[in-house]
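Sample log: NCK associated protein 1 like.
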Amino acid sequence: MAMAYQQKLAEKLTILNDRGTGVLLRMNYIKKTCLDPKLRPQYLTDKTMEASVKYINKKFPNIDFRGNSQYLVGIQKHKSEVMAAMSSYYDSFIDVMEFRDHVYELLNTIDACQCFFNIAVNFDFTKNYLELIITYISVIVMLSRVEDKKVLVGMYNCAHEMSNGSSDPAYPRLAQMFMEYEQPIKKLTEEFGPHTKGVTEALLSLQMLYPRRNLPAEQWRSAQLLSLLSAPASMLDPACCDTMACEYLSLEVMERWILLGYLLCHSSLNTNQSSQELWKMALRSGLYLTIIRDETINIHKITEDYFDGLKGYSKRIADIKECREHVIVNSGAMHRERRGFLRNALKELVKVLEDEPGLLGPKVLFVFMALSFSRDEVLWLVRYSENIPKTKTPEDYVDSQMAELLFYMERLRTLMTKYSRVVQRYHVQYLAQFDALLLNDTMQNMYVCPEEESVLMTSFVSTLSALTIKQVENGEEFDFRALRLDWLRLQAYTSVSKAPLSLKEYPDLAKVMNMTQFHTKMLDNVQEMLHETSDLSILCFYPRVFEKMFSQSSEEVSMQRYLMSFPLACSHFNQTVHPLCPEETEAVEKRSLRLCVTFLEEIAKQTSSVILEICSEQCNLNDQLLPKHCGQTISAARNKKQKKQTPKKGDVQREKPGTESQRKDRAIVTNMDKLHLTLTELCSSFSGSSDFTVFNHIVTPAEFLISHLETRLTKIIVRMAHYNQTTQEIGRPSDLLAGIRAYTASLHTLSRYLSLDVTRLVKNVLLQQTQPLDSYGGQTITTLYTNWYLEGLLRQASSNLIVHCPAMHCFVNQTIENEQSFRAEEYSDISEMQALAELIGPYGLKFLSENLMWHITSQVGELKKLVIENMDVLVQMRANFDKPEAMANLQKRLPAGENVLKRMTIIGVILSFRAMAQDTLEDIMQKHCPYLMGPIESLRDMVSPDTDIKVTLTVFELASAAGLNCDIDPALVAALASMRTDNSSVDEEYKLTCLLLVYIAVSLPILALDPNSYYSRHYGGHHNNIHCLATAINQLSAAMFTVESKNIEQHLKEFLLVASSTLLQLGQNVENRVDGKNRDSIYLLLHMIVEASPFLSQDMLESCFPYVLLRNAYREVYKNYIITLG
């Protein structure tokens, strides 16, 4: 007994199991690294090392460092680098050797102590013992699969000898280990010969547990396994049994224990019938066993190959073949049925526990059983998806409903986490008021209780008795790890041969303590329990299988509500890393995030497609209600009233809007019904989890949907504009606005399905459309409409094919033979311009203005060139404008007057269009933010001529951005100011501006020669757009004189004098046969200039131009129009 105390079996088992897992992961990591060309150590792929690698592989382990130095030149040159690169691999193999030594020592000690094993009694001791054996076997098998181990160790040792003059001390033993395990199974069976008795005893303790757990779905169903509703009267009774921990022990783990254990201790298969039956039952469960992650072994093949070389095992080989046939025929269907049962069982369990979470207290065992059973089935399917046997029913190895099982597993995990306080409150009372008392009674009934064991059990009772519900209410953290380790120690002390207190003689003590241990885990270790029973991190290492499962589930409409379980499963993957192998953490993290993002992107893509398809259909229905489609209905009603001929039978009658909602039969399912059903299913998946964590990254699924909707909606809006750069065609702004409103209204119905900030989504998309480029660098409707209005509308207006019509506040087509491809008024009337302002907003109109200003500055640049060419004549004309004879002579010397007026007209057309856009922007701003517009208007009105020009321009810039008209256009001022070069002086620019106004004034009479210069009352302007000169002269002069800091009013008066004088001479010149109507139309232009100017007045005009001429001119141009009333 003293030996059991001193050997610390419990502590060694615990430490070695954890250490073994780390060593196993390192072997797996080394294998994967050496097989991956991208990760493979560079010295194994380096051409200069090729000879060294071949030589070491050939001569290992006896490598001659001196006699064949020519093969090792590469290592000699880079010995320190080779040592550094290979040291981690070498140390890992040393870890394997040390682990092997410690396992040997511990197993021998356990044999010497003649320990007793029974999974139902000393559960933890037996489990740790079997786990250590299986981990050790797995490490050795993985070691044998590292093909480059000899090269890695040999290169390190060569570099070590070259650097230090001697081999590494551990090299001989390490090399010997490699040679011994060339055939790992054979060597392992030799090693485990002495341990056969202990291993067989431990495995035979599973003969009551494993058959009970390995049942077909029919028996589960008949026993109503996992059902809380099967016995309503006992629903509140605690779920407990004699073997609590065994109930959620992994079936896969037990099969691994049995098959690998009996492979190494095979002699008992011929001598013990129970062992043989247990082994055959495990063989019938499957062909493959997991070594670690995606590393598997075909246990049937390995066992058969090994037994084939042994005498007296022919019957066992026959058993293996029989079991293999059984697996191939029955295994797939059996597991398919199990998954089907578990889906329904978990669904019922989740629904009950969601409704009554208080049942998590007494029935928490059911949760862990359900998770463990489900996890085993998921892992089985994953394992066999890559290793499907030749069978007539391969569909048994495919499950398109896996999403549902994963979903309910996640829901159970979520419920356990959410209601952990409920579980704690129940079990803290259970421990203090039942377990402690029962354990105390059990102790009192024991005949023998040595001091060490007595101290441990007394501490158990005192620890449990001290628990109160207040600790839970106060949020205290519980920690029972010491108690559980003490129980493991007690199992070790009482399981050795000749122990004063033998645990197998006191099974009641084992039952009580096993139950108590489970209850303590409910207080401090729920997350670890969830990891133990439902860890799905193996999916990280089967990415193809995982993605295929997702793809199959996403194709099933009924499974779409469960799709979020796939990205949620990625949150398990951080549990697969180990401190002994930190190098792989980054790779696992990247793979986990990649899988998670892939799934979420696909779910979001599917959802957004359905949403936008519904929106598109709603947009089409909304389009049918637009006024442009009512013509046919009105015509039909009119014909009916006038009793005109009805349409022929061949003519197809257009359906009225709303007929799509009329149904004769409820069973008829329309496309919209299917879309809404699919949307409901997909949105359910999003509503299940607002966010979760994958490797410290917080993932919010709804953001993926918003991102997809934003991207696709942006493209749809641009596509809805129907812009064709080749033919210069584009949709009307009002039509696009109606479409966007229909889409927005449909998107807002998403709030019925899930909590999504649709307002933010729509604002983001529409705000991007007010910029020249969206967030992905694509063109927006701002760019499209800016290009179209400049190239399609204003370019034709510059050629007089389209006329600006002040009377109707729009542009109209000229009635000429060449019919335009579009009607200008359909794109420029008030409603269309308001729609444009709604669509692109102040930002978009600012971009439009900047483009307009660029065209204006290019025209101003050409005008300045004309002024410079004719500067001498213009200077003389400015001085002699009131001398008719001199002006007549100078006029003959002044060319290009038509060019000047043409360019000024273009500027006027552009500024008139901008003014229309600004007016509609003001209307929209007043509609959307009237409380903002009031202060801006007040600020603008406070500006006076005495205000500092910088302040004035700043205020005007604000006002202009809100769509308000300003005396001085700040955008035009900025554009003209940017034209100035370092070489030009202010005085020169000022002189050019003054002469430009003279040039314009003296050229006005030329307009009378153009037959299109007549004024149209219908248009409220001239047929060749010269009425736009009023806007051009006023705004351009105001901006130019502002840039030059000169008095605007004074120079406009001068312009008025020159223009009046020139136009009066037009009337007095008898020789010049000008059409009287055109002359009168030109006179009106002077009146328009004054009317449009904030700096000129009618008094100023009358002082230099007789009002009677204007009155007569208006009478002449209007008298040809017949006015009708009524």
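Observation: The mean pLDDT is 88.
Observation: The two ends are 123 Å apart (CA to CA).
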